[in-house]
């Protein structure tokens, strides 16, 4: 049972560890990543389901050549050929997720991937930012009546709305959208996390963050802006080189991220005025009005014999102008907190 909505409703951030190419071509790495993700506090392990032929074509024109960034001068077909995960591993990985209590999620890149994922019991689908404009793919995946998570890197509001409507057109309203910067790794100046609260207001669905920046600061900020889901690339070690390792989190880092995001949520709490439970004991340290000299019955209260001091056992300081010039109706010894029944009419 895919638990994202349950986790979000409990008030906790749902965390997704994205394996992507970090298996580095070995099933044993993939299985170890599942275990490490569970031990690091992830709720879900995500993979990607494609082959080079389902995501692009083997064409050697410049249109298919990466220019700049991590994959500079690499043809798309070659990049995806070395980064993809063999489909025959994926059922085994899902079973390993079950063993460690992780949800299992995949990103399909064409209809054949959706069909395959259905055959192995995939319980939810993720649409990558680059595929948000592939409305037929979104409709097909959404038609399987599973939760839909859609990354929105580069997307306009209209494109996001089109993707959401594509899901709803086939009767699927279980939709989550993720703020994303499709830059690897992402420059902090380009994250624009303020968009998260606007997305929640504009689209009326669960909103989260698919984060490609280094460290976990963006994830803490996202939680403060209302993100309910955090997705982060996860690796055993960045020294195990592959297409995604340079911007992926190691287990200890992911664990620290989960802990700090949870702490941010605790700090947010709820809209509240007045003392917290922890502050109630400190009320005694507030200022209040005290007799700072012995005051005899009939004596006038002045700024010489009455002051606002700590602790908070007497009248609130706002009454000071009102009581100055009035007379004491009883003896008020030094160090006595003032109350109205000690004070007569104004002279």
Explain this structure.
The protein is α/β, with parallel strands linked by helices and 347 residues long. It has twelve helices and twelve strands. It has helices at 4-9, 27-39, 52-55, 76-83, 87-100, 111-119, 135-142, 157-169, 195-203, 217-224, 251-268, 320-323, and strands at 14-18, 44-49, 103-108, 125-127, 148-151, 175-180, 206-211, 229-233, 288-291, 306-309, 326-328, 343-346. Strands 3-2-1-8-7-6-5-4 form an eight-stranded parallel sheet. The protein has a two-stranded antiparallel ribbon with strand order 9-10. Helix 9 links the parallel strand 6 and strand 7. Helix 2 runs parallel beside helix 5 (87-100) and helix 7 runs parallel beside helix 8. It starts with a helix and ends with a strand.
| Residue windows where pLDDT falls under 50 for at least 5 positions | none
Look at the structure and give the CATH class of the largest domain: Alpha Beta
- Helix percentage range: 25-40%
CATH topology of the largest domain: TIM Barrel
Mind telling me which CATH architecture of the largest domain this is?
Alpha-Beta Barrel
> Which series of helices and strands comes N to C?
HEHEHHHEHEHEHEHEHEHEEHEE
Average pLDDT number? 96
Q: Any idea how many domains?
A: 2
Can you summarize the main beta sheet?
A: 8 strands, parallel
Question: Termini, distance in Å?
Answer: 77 Å
Q: How would you describe the shape? A: elongated
Number of distinct helices: 12
Under CATH, the homologous superfamily of the largest domain reads Aldolase class I
SS class: alpha/beta
Strand arrangement, largest sheet? Answer: 3-2-1-8-7-6-5-4
Strand content: 15-25%
**Cα-atom radius of gyration:** 30 Å
Number of strands: 12
């Amino acid at each position: 049972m895919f638990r994202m909505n349950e986790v979000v409703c409990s008030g906790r951030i749902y965390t997704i560890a994205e394996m992507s190419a970090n298996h580095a071509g070995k099933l044993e790495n993939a299985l170890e990543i599942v275990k490490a993700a569970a031990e690091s506090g992830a709720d879900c392990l995500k993979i990607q389901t494609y082959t080079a032929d389902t995501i692009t074509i083997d064409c050697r024109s410049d249109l298919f050549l990466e220019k700049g960034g991590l994959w500079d001068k690499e043809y798309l077909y070659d990049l995806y050929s070395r980064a993809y995960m063999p489909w025959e591993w994926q059922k085994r990985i899902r079973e390993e997720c079950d063993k460690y209590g992780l949800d299992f999620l995949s990103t399909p890149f064409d209809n054949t991937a959706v069909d395959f994922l259905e055959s192995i019991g995939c319980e939810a689908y993720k649409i990558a930012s680059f595929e948000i404009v592939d409305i037929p793919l979104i409709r097909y995946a959404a038609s399987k009546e599973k939760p839909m998570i859609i990354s929105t890197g580069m997307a306009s509001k209209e494109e996001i709305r089109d993707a959401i409507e594509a899901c709803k057109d086939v009767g699927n309203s279980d939709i989550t959208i993720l703020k994303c910067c499709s830059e690897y790794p992402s420059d902090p100046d380009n994250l624009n996390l303020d968009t998260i609260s606007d997305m929640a207001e504009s689209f009326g669905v669960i909103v989260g963050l698919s984060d490609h920046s280094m460290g976990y600061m963006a994830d803490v900020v996202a939680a403060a802006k209302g993100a309910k889901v955090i997705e982060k690339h996860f690796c055993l070690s960045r020294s195990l080189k592959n297409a995604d390792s340079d911007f992926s989190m190691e287990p200890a880092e992911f664990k620290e991220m989960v802990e700090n995001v949870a702490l941010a949520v605790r700090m947010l709490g709820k809209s509240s005025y007045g003392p917290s439970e922890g502050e109630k004991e400190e009320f005694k340290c507030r200022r209040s009005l005290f007799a700072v000299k012995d005051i005899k019955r009939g004596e006038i209260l002045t700024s010489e014999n009455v002051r606002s001091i700590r602790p908070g056992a007497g009248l609130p300081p706002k009454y000071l102008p009102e009581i100055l010039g009035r007379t004491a109706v009883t003896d008020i010894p030094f160090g006595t907190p003032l109350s109205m029944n000690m004070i007569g009419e104004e002279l």
